[in-house]
Specification:
globular; 334 residues; alpha/beta; 10 helices; six-stranded parallel β-sheet; Quinone Oxidoreductase, Chain A, domain 1
Length: 334
Amino acid sequence: MRAWQLKEFGFESLELVDLPVPNPGPGEVLIRVRAVSFNYRDLLVVKGLYNPKMTRPRIPCSDGAGEIIAVGEGVTSWQPGDRVNGIFLQNWLDGPPTAETNKGALGGDIDGMLAEYVVLPAKSIVGILPYLSYSEAATLPCAAVTAWNALTAGKVGPGSTVLIQGTGGVSIFALQMAKAMGARVLGISSSDEKLERAKSLGLDEGLNYRTTPDWERWAFEQTGDVGVDLVVEVGGAGTLPRSLRAVKIGGTIAQIGVLTGAADVIPLPLIFHKQLHIHGIYVGSRAHFLAMNAFLDQHEIRPVCQSHYWSQARDTLASMESAAHFGKLVVELK
């Protein structure tokens, strides 16, 4: 089988190789991968910035979708032909996170989905919604589940105001889901064109932060000087100070990403004066995935993605660094 394998850190070391097709053992399934989507984490993994001590060689990428072509001994819940996703954290099935559930992340701790065939435990996969294509389904395991958990942490519902940052995968999923929950959504981006596209998906108000850097003041004014209920914080250190100023008293910041560089001084007094909740989000469990799928199915939400050829996987992943994409980047296997 063909697989993209990282032998050393750096894009020049991400090579298309031939490997034996794996066999499913007891309790496992063999999946023919049909599509793989990319996350910013995958970019960091390849560059050696995510975990410099990661064992190599490694097949990267956590997010993929495919069909089961064989099941191992004892597997009764799945059968050949079933369309499935693997979950991001293979050990986190349900319940609160623990040290054990935080292990087993696809494309990091263990080999990921950027291969023609993968073997996964039968307990660590979920079915694909009937109305989704493989490419659409491939976008869900990391970005969509992360967005779902961010909105859940913020207790988003009718009357809530949510602030999203940028127009990448997590932010666009958060926009689509928050609107389905009845929330008002504000968004910031460096591109007026992307903001207009986001408005076609339901964004209520948008601001170009390159032309108006003090976006936290804008967000505050948009809420009648109250502040937003939830910030889906994907920037990290460079945006957190502004997010602390944009959120309302008693509000929530769902801390997800590390897209930005160095920060201003973190205004710590705001955290306790405003009695804020800063909730770290590390994707989610299989149970979260299933709950999210039920919500997507109820509202017929379709992921926003751009598909590319399998042979372009390395270049497509590298293109994430420019942040020119909207939604999710996907490569398809025919």
